[in-house]
Amino acid sequence: SVSPSPVGFGDRAGQDAGLDVTPTPPTDIPKASDSRGDSRRGSLCDRHCSTINNDFGDLGCHSHRPRGPAAAPSPHSEDCESCARTTLTAENAVEANKLSNNYKFGFKKWKSHVTARPWEDRSEIVKELYSDLTVLRGPAGSTVTCGNVLYLLLFGWWLSLLHGLVAAGMFLTVVGAPHGRLCWDLAGYFLWPFGKAIQKVEVPKSQEAGAGESSALLGGPGPGRWRPRCWEGTGHWRRVGTAAWLCLGYPPLALSHGLVCVTSWLLIVTIPVAKLSARSAARVLLLPPERLRVRRVRTTEVPPEGEVILCCYRAANPYYYKYSVHGLNVFAVNLLPLVLVTLLLGYLDSHNHLSSSTLKFSLALLSIMPLSYYIGMAIASISAQSTFAVGAVVNATFGSVTELTFYISALLKGSREGSACYAEVVKSALTGTLVGCVLFIPGLCMVIGGIRHREQRFNSRSAGVSSALLFLSVGGVFAPTLFSKVYGKLVCGECHNVTQNPLGHYLCHSCHLDLMDNNGTLYYSHVQPLVYTVSLLLPAAYLVGLCFTLKTHSHIYDIHVSGCHMPGHHHSAVVHWSRWRALVILLLSTLCMSACADLATEHISPILTNSTISQYFIGVTVLAMVPELPEIVNGIQFALQNNLSLSIEIGNCIAVQVCMLQIPILVLFTIFYPTNFTLVFSDLHVYASMFSVVLMNYTFMDGKCDYFQGTVLVMVYFILLAVYFFAPSPSGC
To answer: Which residue among 137, 409, 585, 684 has its CA within the 20 to 30 Å range from the CA of 505?
Structure first.
């Protein structure tokens, strides 16, 4: 028997794929008393947002077996023990739709939120990342930390020296003496700003009029009314000393703070220093000097006479890898300038005067990573805010755009140059993606997730469906190859008689199957029709898989998405990207992806011709797995949350899409634009792919795994990489 979920199942009619995506709060939850308010909200959420302990494992934000009498078994319980409902928690309807999309076959799995999370639902660690540098917290411990010392060595000493030199220059101008005194105080502040605060104080109008004679930095602030936050009064901007400051003192300091801001932002862990420098250049240095005072923090309360403008305690925080800007992870934001540099350098320096082809190729590949992230975020945002049909179309259209743009660009370049090497590289990349998604991604997720969780369980029935589709797709993709092995004619470029006997043994080199014998009768009459037939059957099988998992047998992915917030605590969904904004970003990212793919294929020729590494190895590693890095990160995050089902589905879905969508699209492309691409693979690709699928199916049979099984998958993947590394280059390269 299965313990009932405390959330009503409701009517499933009209729901996509049998998933209840309405984040409706439980109806049987007692109301919290007003005296406790939000203090009971977390405990009630823990009690009522529960997850059934079945093969899906821990999928929600809270997971335990709810108390209560046993419920009647599900109508599908006779077919599969793992068909009990699993409850997932969501903050709003958009997040609920995104969660259900993660379990839909053919939809891109996405870990990050597509809406802004409520502030009170975030952990204290995350809240600290977004906290403003205006809060006085008092001495919570020693300020001598590794991050603060690193700030002193990288930025503090020369920022302090620069402020001291500017102070001396402003004193020499006489009229800029107030700004000189401010710079002198800031020199000591920026040498070690931790545990200190910069305050804006109010001064009497008499002192404000004669600020050159008295300053709030030297004397105590006088009482007065508060004024706007910056640029108060027109008197400050009409002074001669202010003009001298803006011409002589402010530019070098603003430039230095801008340099510190950019550098510390790129380092990510030192983002607090970036905030410190940005606020210093944008506000502190532009305020009247008599309104500013630097003091050491000794209490936790803000003095009544001043407003805290800047207060910093830590220069570094290792948790800033979680930081996001408008829903975008900080790593993706920092890599965006790399895309612009790649495009400018690639198209403006076409003759390699400023850089080499190897550098441009490397930059183009690195630029694919953030663009893949933007495309995935845009697809998830559009799908979460749209109907099932729109989400399915967007996922099917743009889900494989990253790989297809590179493959098509490589085939076009090979066709222009008349080289078959590019087609072989594309086949290697296709095989590398298939093997990597079947072995490396699930294996790595098992290892990392197994370090935190002793044993992880997943839905063996859903994994079995993906395995069956993989067997079908691999058999279909390699059917033309097996047909060619049986009926093709083996042709060798060079043979030597090793026994000096005309009837003895011959040693042959550069052998390949010739399908063009007798004017290509075998290829055009037998192999090519088989390729077209397979290219039609594989997408049809993909549609059958969609119908099976989303309609007729949707109980395999029977997920109930419920709201985790109590009545009176609901939050409206504030999406990071609206549908139109996500669509524009999706189109722009796709366009930039095409340009980067074109640059990568344009500058890959020296690597293929001059490198001592096998072209097989380049295809199955660099070209295959670099575009999948965002998917690998998503899978690892799911595994760390004990949600191995989605980690496995990420790899399986990519592998299925390679065989059932990407390869048929490439075959369709060759019909309208003839290239050297044929659906006949080398023996190495056939054996590696089939062995990987068999091993994956054997590993996923029992519905549970640990880090040891993941280690086996990863080791087998590296063994196959070693085989590709030492393999000779394919014919035509």
So the answer is: 684
